[in-house]
Amino acid sequence: MQTLETQAHQQDHQIVEKSYTIKDWQGGYESLPEEYDYWIDDIEGEIPPELAGTLFRNGAGLLDINGERLHHPFDGDGMISRITFINGRAHFRNRFVQTAGYLAEQKAKKILYRGVFGTQKPGGWLANIFDFKLKNIANTNVIYWGKKLLALWEAAEPYLLNPHTLETLENEYFNGVLSKGEAFSAHPRIDPRGILVNFAIKPGLLTTITIFELNTKGEITSKKNHKVPGFCFIHDFVITENYCIFFQNPVKFNPIPFALGICGAAECIKVQKNQPTKIIIIPRTTNTPIEKVKILETKAGFIFHHVNAFELENEIIVDSICYESLMEVEPNSDYRKTDFDKNSPPQIWRFHLNLLENQVQNQLIDTRTTEFPTIHPCHVGKPYRYLYSAAAHQSTFNAPLQAIFKVDLESGTKQLWSTAPRGFVGEPIFVPRVNSQQEDDGWIIVVVYNAENHRSEIVILDAQNLAKGRIAKLGLKHHIPYGLHGSFTPEIFI
Ligand SMILES: [Fe+2]
User: Fold this and answer.
1) CA torsion sign, 482 to 156 to 300 to 327?
2) Where is the signal peptide (predicted)?
3) pLDDT (tens digit, 9 = 90+) per residue, 136-187?
């Protein structure tokens, strides 16, 4: 383990050796076809007895179908991992989401569907031409809301799972408010007032952004459509008390190669580096300082994920992870051979949206490669002080995510806990201590892939003091392929 200080010291002395090897990093992209169910007995340190609840995680469990490699991990079938904490113990279970596509391909033992990120059916372009069928892979996020456990994928309806068994039950349509095949994004935001806010994108020359609000019973109480000009590729959004905010990435979409069976839909998206990002501000109610949709412009590169947003007098502050350009997927490339040095690092930026002057000011918060930001759940849409993210070991180069990074946005101080050289981290989740008074009083829970033994570990850190190192390391009997998103609920499911 290294702290920020020791790492900075190394850079002073210009030690530029890589903190990882590509071979180690590639190990986290092997399929895990097995499903497990066991109490974790390989524990170093101590699980805090007051840490009680269930962590759900989602991500591609399969990177191949019967040995036939997928073109991109985002095309992989969703697999839910569940870690339950109770009385200082932890239980693990994983299950594949039994989507229609997963069941069909497992039965056929071959790829039957094209993936959005470039996976093609065998047989070249002739086998793929004019095939626009989507496979809902339910692999991006998993949330427990209104007594429903939902596996989410941004281009289609959720899958409903049994939280006790992880058994797949059916598609969720929220009493018919959602129609068959209708999108429901994988990036809901939970307004601490007890409202889950989510969106859907229907791209076109005019894009429709649908905003959903759900009550604590898991019912959709509001569904509103908004038309905005131009093609939108939007993965995430942020909320404040009064607004939903979307960053419309500057991209161009040419669907012809996709239609002709030459490549996946996402491979037809090209970032327009010199074009501005449009910031779409949509009022959540009619009782807001601005009543109509407002669009501002700025230079922001490409954004997958935002950290948070809040209102401050005449401004909305938005914190986001910005890429100078999108790491483009090419039809004949191999994602496992990514050259990190050739890409610019995703970095934390703060945007000040001035609603009176219609101006945007941008401020770089930190140069470090960082992704998968998270915050205290009670501060979503509100002023906040601490953000946590997965980050690179080095502070300036683009590199795999090997560390957990904490930024104090008030004082500017930063902390780093690194798993380099052989560890690789996923999305951290902040779990507040029950009845905590301070914003950072709680734990960071993260899945770490350890290339040394090709297994994954669940690591618990003290969010107030990352430099203290691991409070507990829970060794799994296997690895978990690199995942995407997840969530924590204080409810116990075993
Ligand atoms: Fe995401």
Assistant:
1) positive
2) none
3) 999 999 999 999 999 999 999 999 999 999 999 999 999 999 999 999 999 9
Alpha helical stretches, state H, 170-321 = 256-259
Tell me the residue type at 287. N
Distance 472 CA to ligand 1 centre (A): 27
Find the mean pLDDT for residues 22-27. 96
Residue 291 Cα to ligand 1 midpoint, Å, equals 29
**Residue recorded with tokens 């404040």:** 240
Q: Tell me how crowded residue 68 is: count the other CB atoms within 10 A of its CB.
A: 13
Beta bridge partners of 80: 58, 95
Asked whether 215 and 198 are in contact (CB, 8 A), the reply is no
Contacts of 41 (CB under 8 A, 6+ apart): none
Residue 116: per-residue pLDDT? 83
Q: What is the pTM of this model?
A: 0.94
Question: Tens digits of per-residue pLDDT, 301-329?
Answer: 999 999 999 999 999 999 999 998 876 66
Q: How far is the CA of 185 from the centre of ligand 1 (A)?
A: 10
Q: How far is the CA of 283 from the centre of ligand 1 (A)?
A: 23
Give distance in angstroms: CA of 87 to centre of ligand 1: 32
Q: Which two tokens stand for residue 461?
A: 């850190």
pLDDT > 90 in the chain, percent? 79
Task: Output the CA 440–ligand 1 centroid distance in Å.
Answer: 23
Report the separation in Å between the CA atom of 19 and the middle of ligand 1, taken as the mean of its atom positions: 25
